[in-house]
Write a structure and sequence with these properties.
Layout: H1 5-17, H2 21-28, H3 33-41, H4 45-53, H5 57-66, H6 69-78, H7 81-88, H8 93-103, H9 108-114, H10 117-127, H11 134-137, E1 143-145, H12 151-161, E2 170-174, E3 180-185, H13 186-190, E4 209-210, H14 215-224, E5 229-233, E6 239-244, H15 245-263, H16 281-308, H17 310-315, H18 318-321, H19 323-346, H20 355-385, H21 388-418, H22 423-451
Parallel strand pairs: 1-2, 4-5
Antiparallel strand pairs: 2-3, 5-6
Helix pairs in contact: 1-2, 3-5, 4-6, 8-10, 14-15, 15-22, 16-22, 19-21, 19-22, 20-21, 21-22
Length: about 450
């Protein structure tokens, strides 16, 4: 019987507390692997091992595949080499490669030696590709055809190898030397007269990636063309394997998580998918402290600006009341721009050559937004203080600060990308710090000019 997530958690914990292994075994072996993996993420180490040992082998292999890196590593350190090899033998080759390369790299040689020779050789060849490359993500089990085969022969071939391939949505047409020359969908084969040759209706306009292509780029290519699988070739178009949509989705999810963490100034590393409550607090602090320290030091410039304009603030105390409003608006405007630009760069809507187009667009956006916000802010200031000059200061400052924030908010990620730094790492924290200091300087400079201080 399937349970909702919270109810399944409660049932598992109840059986663990009652030491009722029989009930626990019956319960968990009737659930989806994804749901069991989620339960394991929230259990302590001892409970993880108890639950996992009660799983049937095929389900245990699926759970190992679905679990996060932290939980997978915990489980693998507890299992014998023979047990790990048995579980890996029940998993798709690309998932086995990920576990061998990333989850238990220190036991890589030991596990490879214990595997069947053919499988171990295939894994060693895949390990020669760079980390995070398409070669590491692909599977070598796909449907192959010759161009002189008929549609009937293609379907016969499918029946023979269906259980040995990872996906059966497309056939890949290879020549006698193994080079990719065409692709034909299963639907096309089914809907074609049985005696028609593959070369008569196969797709020759090929979309593919090479083995050294970055995994994120490969995943986005697959998503861009709405494929369920994407061929991977070498520089000579020799077919090496395919990347399936489920693996591409995992890559995009992982990259999105990393970008979200970096946007708030948290560095990422292996094991960042560790559950919130079990992550060592000192490691979390180490990840966050460096950026917070740098931003803390940078924020001292804001204090220096206030010292420079100390006399102006003393003469017109009301100026200080609007500081949070103005620098907050500038920070929010810049953060929106940064997020928009980073997203555009990630999906390749924005390329380095578009720098001046982006600047023009964001400057115009900033001026328009600033004018609208300036009208509202100026009116509010006048209603509060009945001081027309001060209201003008607030209105003009909002126009300038919004235009300025949009400009640097678009420049920072573009510049970071140009010098080889991940824009997500520096953009959001840096824009906040810059806007605080420069926005305050702009505000008080405009006040000095208009109020004659």
């Amino acid at each position: 019987m399937l349970y909702e997530a919270e109810l399944l958690d409660a049932q598992v914990i109840e059986n663990l507390e009652n030491d009722d292994d029989a009930a626990l075994k019956a319960l968990i072996n009737d659930q989806y692997a994804q749901d069991i993996a989620d339960v394991l993420e929230r259990l302590n180490t001892e409970a993880k091992f108890r639950v996992f040992e009660l799983l049937e082998s095929d389900l245990a292999a699926e759970v190992l595949d679905e679990a996060g890196i932290y939980t997978t590593r915990q489980l693998l350190t507890h299992l014998s080499t023979e047990r790990i090899v048995d579980l890996l033998g029940r998993m798709p080759p690309d998932d086995v490669l990920e576990i061998i390369a990333e989850d238990v790299p220190q036991r890589r040689d030991e596990l490879l030696e214990a595997m069947p020779t053919e499988i171990a050789q295939e894994l060693r060849e895949s390990l020669n590709f760079p980390p995070s490359s398409a070669g590491r993500l692909m599977t070598r089990k796909y449907l192959k055809l010759r161009e002189d085969m008929t549609a009937f022969e293609a379907l016969s071939q499918l029946r023979l190898v269906n259980s040995k391939v990872e996906t059966a949505n497309d056939f890949y047409v290879l020549d006698d030397t193994g080079h990719l020359i065409g692709v034909v969908s299963l639907r096309a084969v089914v809907n074609t007269p049985p005696n028609r040759r593959i070369h008569e209706f196969m797709e020759r306009d090929l979309i593919y990636v090479t083995a050294d292509t970055d995994q994120e780029e490969a995943a986005r290519t697959l998503a861009r063309y709405d494929f369920l699988a994407l061929p991977v070739v070498n520089d000579d178009l020799k077919m090496l394997g395919i990347i399936t949509v489920d693996d591409a989705l995992d890559v995009l999810t992982r990259e999105n998580t990393e970008d979200m963490m970096r946007l708030v100034g948290i560095t990422t590393s292996e094991g960042d998918d560790e559950p919130y409550f079990t992550a060592p607090i000192f490691r979390v602090i180490r990840q966050r402290f460096v950026w917070l320290l740098l931003l803390f030091l940078a924020d001292t410039f804001t204090g220096n600006v206030l010292r420079i304009f100390e006399s102006e603030l003393a003469q017109v105390v009301a100026l200080s009341f609007y500081i949070p409003l103005l620098i907050g608006t500038g920070g929010n405007t810049g953060a929106q721009t940064v997020s928009t630009i980073i997203r555009g760069m990630a999906i390749q809507d924005i390329k380095p050559r578009d720098t001046f187009r982006v600047l023009r667009r964001e400057l115009l956006n900033g001026l328009i937004l600033g004018t609208l916000l300036g009208a509202v802010g100026g009116l509010r200031a006048y209603l509060w203080d009945q001081n027309l000059s001060l209201a003008v200061v607030i209105g003009v400052t909002l126009v300038v600060v919004c235009a300025w924030s949009n400009t640097i908010g678009s420049l920072i990620p573009l510049f970071a990308k140009r010098i080889g730094i991940d824009p997500a790492i520096v953009s959001a924290p840096l824009i906040t710090t810059l806007v605080d200091a420069t926005g305050l300087f702009i505000y008080l400079s405009i006040a000095r000019l208009i109020l004659g201080l």
